[in-house]
Amino acid sequence: MLDVTVTHDGVRRICGAILAVVLGVSAVSAFSGPGEDDPDQVIAAGAVAAGPPAPLEQVRQILHKQAAALGRGDRAGWLAPVAPALHGRYLGLYRTLRALRVTTVEYRITGGRLPALAVELAYCFTACTNDRPSIAQTLTFERSGTAYRLIKLTKPQRPTKLQPTPWESGDLVVAQGRRVTVAAPKVLAGRLAEVVRIADEAATIDDRYAALAGNRQARYRIFLASEKQWRIWYGGKGTDWAAGYMQPLAGAGADVVIHLNRIRNRAALREVIQHELGHVATIGGVQPGVHDMWLVEGVAEYIGMRPRAAGQTYNLSVLRRPTRLAVPPLRDGAGKAEVAAFYAHGHFAVECLVTKFGEARAMEFVRLRLRLGNTLEVAARSVFGRSFASVEQTCVDRLRQQAGQ
Q1: Structural class in CATH, domain 5-19+170-403
Q2: Euclidean distance between CA atoms 213 and 133, whole angstroms
């Protein structure tokens, strides 16, 4: 699925491919942060202990304790099972995840045999659901006396679709704003303060639409990418013509990635960030259908350009006369002119809904369609009291007039 947007000065951005991250089936049960029961450790009343646990169970318990230590901010507990040679790597990962405000960490052993095990590290930076994102790792353990210690962390044979994530190398510099957390590689650390200020301003706009969409955000996360990271993060979602994208994290929210060197000025940066946070506000945590891309991108364009009207933006110059409102998604290989026209159409389409029916009702239509999965017909009749065909004709007429100006 190709998914792009356009700013008034030609800067383009994308929303990452909508995907559901399916966690691998665990060879042993998952374990999580403090306060959650581990059914495998519950001993029936009257049972007699059967001696020391088997080696694989010992390692599973080690990982359980390590994950719990990270969740509660216990650095010593996180490093306890790690060999000294790996302390630097694991300390960096600890600092990065804590700075990103990780809320849940959970190791799942998915294969292999001692000493080398395939695992998945499931995580959340917001309120967690059962559908949690994860990364794959290969961990090698060494027996040390009566215990095991972690002596090697290597790339997995089968990484998840999210890998490499921005944070898993543990080398980011992180800055906190009122509403945003912004992280960057050291080469871009000097831009953090600037981006935090701009993103906090943008978040005040996005928060309004998150509330209208019934999807309030505790906090937004933004990762700044250099050209190198742009090409590899999240499986290489970045493209040659984009300046940013939103990466869904299964049911656990979404991240935003921005390529600073492709954005010309402060106004354009605000626009790109506000657009991508608009995706987080409206579709974070859900998976809209591909045929809704006109609405997905249209509402993000509408939010991203606020407070300017569509007619005051670059989109007016590329708007084409439409024959329908719910246009098909962009085809693979679409050229720049086609891409620009698609996003302009979505922007003007959403603005039409706002103009004709009011912003609150237009955003309720967006919520019913994109978040709850109502049909266009049901959403239109529920919110506007009219058939979608009637709404579509009204807005098509309006867009044709605007395109002819």
Answers
A1: mainly alpha
A2: 23
